[in-house]
């Protein structure tokens, strides 16, 4: 155990946030699945909780493994991921498993598990963009050599995801724009991208296969008083959870809205947390994600290489934007979407891909620490202030 701890590197605050969110996840999911014991029997509840615990521990293991791998290797891996991702997104649209009226999932043969291909696509596109922006820095203003190849990958992935999962596609597009700004793409070119993105968005909303679903959700959000109660059921039950939670909450395990809210352990877990732990509990969750963003920004500013900075920036923006999108939906600040709360919501493969993203960020952080330590050692040598105890042993 001590050997594992000695090998654990990277930002200690991020590690603390990971542990806290994992503990909160176990407690919140245990409470939110309580209603299943009544509806389907205690065996189902215990099975789901055991499965979630396994994925939480597996996720922490993936973070540890991913953070030990030099982040530079992810540049090469990103090309392989993109080659796999685009055909897989096509396959999902045509043959994807239909869950909750949406074909976003692919069933893994033999083991029978399903996973959202958009989770893999987010990781693939962000790492690929970081690689491309770094590689093209010398002629980043060149439209033919830099702008078109970079935006081609963004647009293809955006359209393929948006046809089945608009909310995830919009968040990923927003993260891509932020990366383009950090990567020194000209504002004029970015404006063209935004106009093009708006046209693609209109195409998906008004002509896509799920146009009726998108229109219904937007109308329910903009004019809830004009909708039938069935259309606003999820949002209404979430608001009741928020209102009855008060400042200090009902206490862990005392939620009543978990009996009415669809998916209280995934999409609306933040509403259950506020009902049980109150507004203060909700603020603590928000602060954890804000601290995560702050620590990641520090990593970005200290990263010695452009690829590491862009990689950490893209992944941290993706995680925090997704977190606040989930919380916004739960408190009624956005239309209902199927976006989970990172590291908190129950979900097997989404937990794994989120954990890999955390691991990559910590890999960049580990490199930053080693780089700073090397600089400090060099300064001591230059200033002739090295004492015997300061010299590291190399074998």
Automatic annotation (TrEMBL):
<feature type="transmembrane region" description="Helical">
    <location>
        <begin position="13"/>
        <end position="36"/>
    </location>
</feature>
<keyword id="KW-0132">Cell division</keyword>
<dbReference type="GO" id="GO:0015648">
    <property type="term" value="F:lipid-linked peptidoglycan transporter activity"/>
</dbReference>
<keyword id="KW-1133">Transmembrane helix</keyword>
<dbReference type="GO" id="GO:0051301">
    <property type="term" value="P:cell division"/>
</dbReference>
<dbReference type="InterPro" id="IPR001182">
    <property type="entry name" value="FtsW/RodA"/>
</dbReference>
<dbReference type="GO" id="GO:0032153">
    <property type="term" value="C:cell division site"/>
</dbReference>
<dbReference type="Pfam" id="PF01098">
    <property type="entry name" value="FTSW_RODA_SPOVE"/>
</dbReference>
<dbReference type="GO" id="GO:0009252">
    <property type="term" value="P:peptidoglycan biosynthetic process"/>
</dbReference>
<keyword id="KW-0812">Transmembrane</keyword>
<keyword id="KW-0808">Transferase</keyword>
<keyword id="KW-0472">Membrane</keyword>
<feature type="transmembrane region" description="Helical">
    <location>
        <begin position="48"/>
        <end position="67"/>
    </location>
</feature>
<keyword id="KW-0573">Peptidoglycan synthesis</keyword>
<protein>
    <recommendedName>
        <fullName>Probable peptidoglycan glycosyltransferase FtsW</fullName>
        <ecNumber>2.4.99.28</ecNumber>
    </recommendedName>
</protein>
<keyword id="KW-0131">Cell cycle</keyword>
<feature type="transmembrane region" description="Helical">
    <location>
        <begin position="190"/>
        <end position="208"/>
    </location>
</feature>
<feature type="transmembrane region" description="Helical">
    <location>
        <begin position="73"/>
        <end position="96"/>
    </location>
</feature>
<comment type="similarity">
    <text>Belongs to the SEDS family. FtsW subfamily.</text>
</comment>
<feature type="transmembrane region" description="Helical">
    <location>
        <begin position="108"/>
        <end position="130"/>
    </location>
</feature>
<keyword id="KW-0133">Cell shape</keyword>
<feature type="transmembrane region" description="Helical">
    <location>
        <begin position="268"/>
        <end position="294"/>
    </location>
</feature>
<dbReference type="GO" id="GO:0005886">
    <property type="term" value="C:plasma membrane"/>
</dbReference>
<feature type="transmembrane region" description="Helical">
    <location>
        <begin position="150"/>
        <end position="183"/>
    </location>
</feature>
<feature type="transmembrane region" description="Helical">
    <location>
        <begin position="306"/>
        <end position="331"/>
    </location>
</feature>
<feature type="transmembrane region" description="Helical">
    <location>
        <begin position="343"/>
        <end position="365"/>
    </location>
</feature>
<dbReference type="GO" id="GO:0008955">
    <property type="term" value="F:peptidoglycan glycosyltransferase activity"/>
</dbReference>
<keyword id="KW-0328">Glycosyltransferase</keyword>
<dbReference type="GO" id="GO:0008360">
    <property type="term" value="P:regulation of cell shape"/>
</dbReference>
């Amino acid at each position: 155990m001590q050997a594992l701890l000695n090998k654990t590197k990277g930002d200690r605050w991020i590690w603390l946030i990971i542990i806290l969110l994992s503990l909160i996840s176990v407690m919140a999911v245990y409470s939110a699945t309580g209603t299943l014991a009544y509806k389907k029997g205690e065996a189902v509840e215990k099975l789901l909780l055991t499965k979630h615990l396994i994925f939480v521990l597996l996720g922490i293991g993936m973070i540890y493994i991913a953070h030990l791998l030099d982040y530079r290797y992810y540049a090469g891996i990103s090309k392989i991921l993109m080659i796999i991702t685009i055909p897989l997104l096509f396959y999902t649209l045509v043959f994807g498993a239909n869950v909750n009226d949406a074909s976003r999932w692919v069933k893994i043969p033999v083991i029978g598990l399903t996973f959202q291909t958009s989770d893999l696509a987010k990781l693939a596109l962000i790492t690929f963009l970081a690689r491309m922006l770094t590689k093209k820095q010398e002629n980043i203003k060149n439209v033919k050599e830099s702008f078109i190849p970079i935006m081609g990958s963004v647009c293809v992935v955006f359209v393929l995801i948006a046809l089945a999962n608009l909310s995830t596609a919009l968040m990923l597009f927003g993260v891509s724009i932020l990366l383009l700004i950090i990567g020194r793409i000209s504002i004029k070119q970015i404006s063209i991208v935004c106009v093009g993105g708006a046209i693609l968005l209109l195409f998906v909303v008004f002509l896509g296969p799920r146009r009726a679903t998108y229109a219904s959700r937007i109308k329910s959000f903009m004019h809830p008083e004009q909708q039938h109660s069935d259309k606003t059921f999820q949002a209404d039950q979430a608001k009741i959870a928020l209102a009855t939670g008060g400042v200090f909450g009902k206490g862990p395990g005392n939620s009543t809205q978990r009996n009415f809210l669809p998916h209280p352990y995934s999409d609306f877990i933040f509403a259950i947390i506020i009902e049980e732990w109150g507004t203060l509990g909700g603020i603590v969750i928000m602060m954890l994600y804000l601290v995560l963003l702050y620590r990641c920004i520090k990593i970005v500013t200290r990263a010695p290489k452009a690829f590491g900075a862009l990689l950490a920036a893209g992944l941290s923006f993706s995680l925090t934007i997704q977190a606040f999108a989930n919380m916004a939906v739960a408190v009624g600040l956005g239309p209902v979407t199927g976006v989970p709360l990172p590291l908190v919501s129950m979900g097997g493969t989404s937990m794994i891909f989120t954990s890999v993203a955390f691991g990559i960020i910590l890999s960049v952080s580990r490199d930053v620490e080693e780089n700073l330590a090397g600089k400090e050692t060099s300064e001591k040598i230059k200033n002739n202030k090295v004492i015997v105890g300061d010299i590291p042993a190399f074998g």
